[in-house]
Structure formats: C-alpha cells, structure tokens
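User: quick one, fold this
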Amino acid sequence: MKRFTSVLALGLAASLTLAGCNTAKDVADGAKGAVDGAANVAGDVAGGAVDAAGDVAGGAADVAGGAVDAVTGAAGDAAGAAGDAAGAAGGGLVALKDGVTGMTSSITSTVDSVKSGDFAAAQESFSGVETAWGNIKGIVPGENAGIEEKIAEVTTGLASDAPDADSILSSLGGLKDLVGTMGGN
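Assistant:
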C-alpha cells in the first residue's frame, strides 16, 4: 500500500503541477489580453485627440476666412464711399460753378436795369440771384454773411417806393465782388 500511496501522491503532484501550469498560462494570457485592450483604448484616445485637433484647426480656418471676408468687404465699402464722396464733391463743384455763373449773370442784368431806371425789370433780374444763391449757399465754403447782407440790401432797395439807384448799384457792386471771390475770379 505504500507503493500505491506513493504512486497516488506522485500522480496527485503531477496533476497539481499541470494544473498550476495551466493557471499560470491563463494568467499570462489574461495579462496579454489586458495589455492589448489598454493599447486599443490608448489608440482610440489618441485618434480622438487627433480628430479633435483637426476639428479645432478647421474651425480656426473658418473663422480666419470669415475675418478675411469681413475685412475685404469693409475695404470695398470704404472704397465705394470714397468714390461716392469724390463724385459728390465733383458734382458740388459743378453746382457751385453753375450757381456762381448764374448769380454773376443775374447781377449784371440787374445793374443794367437799375442804370436804365427800370426797377421792375431789376427786381425780376435780381430774383435770379436769389434763386441761384438758394441753390448753392449750402455748398459754399467759408463765411457767407457778407453775401447774405448784400442780397438783403439790394432786395430792400428794389422794394422801396422810391429806389435809390446809387445805393442799389453800390450794393450790387459789393455783391458782385463777393460772388467773384467765391468763383475764384
């Protein structure tokens, strides 16, 4: 029986050894699986980070493109406004020149009518001065009180029951001088 016990013990020891080997192999396989899983998770996290960085870079490019579009639009608007202002200035100069020419012509006609003693014709001619002045006084640079004063003097003189030709002619001469400086003459 001793032999049987020894064989049984030997068999049991062999079984335990084999079982221990299988358990160590299983543990090693499990560890390898855990390492592989961790590597997969790390790869997924890294891939997600790369994707997020790409999304951020794309968003930044969109914002930069929008900023470039806004600046380009603002520059175009500014250029258009400058062109409009230049056009308005050019149109204003033409209106000023035409107004000065109209005033000068009407002053000359008024002087001729006053010299001939036809004050009704002088009043009619002078209405051209008042109309031309009304059209340009908003675009005439500088102080215009002198022009306004001379126009009032002539208007009052022509409306008088007994117009004073010398006084009216003096006011017309002063007005013509002021208008001449306005036109660059």
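User: anything notable?
Assistant: The helical segments are 2-116, 119-136, 145-159, 165-182.
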